[in-house]
Amino acid sequence: MDAKIAVLPGDGVGPEVTAEARKVLEAIAQARGHRFSFETALVGGAAIDEAGTALPEATLELCKASDAVLFGAVGGPKWDDPKARVRPEQGLLGLRKGLGLFANLRPVKLNPALVDASTIKADVLAGTDLLFVRELTGGIYFGQRGRDAGGKEAFDTMVYSEPEITRVVRFAFNLARGRRRKVTSVDKANVLECSRLWRETAMRIAAEYPDVTYENMLVDACAMHLIRRPSTFDVIVTENMFGDILTDEASMLTGSLGLLPSASLAEGNLGLYEPIHGSAPDIAGQGIANPLGTILSAALLLRHSLKLDQEAQAIEKAVDKALAEGYRTRDIEQPGTKVLGTQEMGDLIVRYITTA
Ligand code: NAD
């Protein structure tokens, strides 16, 4: 197939890790007879330096005209003043809004080769393979906020509409049908009115999917069960702020920030794919960043935007093989493993794909 992929490297290690993911996508295209074209654009701090804004119009237009977006990371000490009018993360927020990216997907799957890298006991982690679906464009992060005249009282507003909830919950149920057919909807329905609407809506949608097991869970209970019995979850769907917090908690199950991918999807097939980590300014430019989170994000790009599931699996298998054979980047180094740099790890994944 032909596909147009926008690449937004961003700041810090962003350019290093997206270069490796692009290399892997090029290798897959060549191995499987597809034609992917890549166009790079500015975002984040790099865009502020060049164009005075974190999301230049040309970048948004390129993304809208592409089949998918591969994103690195934005931010760094150079642009860190919280009071600055232009800030790198406006690039990502602007893309979410401008592209209508309403669902954020974060798979958390335990890799058996890395079971000892987690702070959680191996027997608790065994079999963990869950998928978070976080609502991304509504809730308290987008509601009205302010301070009183004296500045000593502040408020933020959480608003959700039924169509917003329906869209993301239905999306979660559809994904569950391709997995182990279980959905956990997380809310705080004992306290929040938005959560009561969320639960009513989720229960109504659940009735349309009799083949999928459904449960509600309060967010505080979910925080606990995630580290007590993570393997019992399949798809977890929740609102924006709860999802923000719980996905960070869940990412620690696998023990490494550098390894986890994410996808942010719009209606239709357009999506933005990025590792969950930030721009890691402490290691930027040293050639030691772990590119696997971005490479696995490229696999999600193939699966969700281009509908190339076999190609996605080929990347995931190549990453599993590298880890099983003891190859690591420095952040996930363990005794007896072989440490590779960013490019060497990318080259290894390409080699596994082209010789598979
Ligand atoms: P971070 O994820 O950048 O780094 C946290 C720690 O993990 C650092 O020690 C870093 O070296 C390490 N790390 C992260 N990614 C790694 C990788 N691929 N390989 C090896 N080690 C890796 O988080 P932070 O330090 O809190 O934030 C740094 C900057 O990134 C800030 O400006 C922040 O705003 C930004 N940030 C951006 C995003 C994004 O673009 N989506 C997300 C989070 C943070």
Outline of the structure:
The protein has 356 residues and is an alpha/beta fold.
Could you please describe the fold and organization of this structure?
By secondary structure, the chain is an alpha/beta fold. It has two domains: 1-109 and 260-356, Isopropylmalate Dehydrogenase, CATH 3.40.718; 118-253, Isopropylmalate Dehydrogenase (3-Layer(aba) Sandwich), CATH 3.40.718. 40% of the residues lie in helices and 20% in strands. It has twelve helices and 14 strands. The protein has helices at residues 14-32, 45-51, 57-64, 89-99, 122-125, 162-177, 193-206, 219-228, 240-251, 292-304, 309-324, 342-355; strands spanning 2-10, 35-40, 68-73, 103-109, 129-135, 145-147, 154-156, 182-187, 213-218, 235-238, 261-265, 271-275, 327-328, 338-339. The strands form three sheets. A ten-stranded mixed beta sheet has the order 2-1-3-12-11-4-5-10-8-9, with helices on both faces. The longest helix has 19 residues, at 14-32. The protein is globular, with a radius of gyration of 20 Å. The protein starts with a strand and ends with a helix. The model has no long low-confidence stretch (mean pLDDT 96). The chain binds nicotinamide-adenine-dinucleotide. Residues 13, 17, 73-76, 92, 257-258, 274, 277-283, 289-290, 293, 331 line the site of nicotinamide-adenine-dinucleotide (NAD).
